[in-house]
Design goal:
Length: about 60
């Protein structure tokens, strides 16, 4: 089982615990994939900010 599948299952379980049962397996996997995409985008943005703050001359 992939990490995305695990996250999708956790998402379905959490929503079910809140009484939401209309999310399909495919929808939850698509949401999990998008979460990972957004995390990657955020990591890149933070790395770029850090680089810009420090500047190219790190010596």
């Amino acid at each position: 089982m992939s990490v995305k599948s695990i996250v999708a299952k956790i998402l379905r379980d959490e929503l079910t615990s809140l009484g939401i049962r209309s999310l399909t397996v495919q929808e939850s996997e698509r949401i999990a994939a998008r979460i990972f995409e957004r995390i990657t985008e955020l990591e890149l943005e933070l790395a770029a900010r850090d680089f810009a703050a420090v500047g190219p001359d790190r010596d």
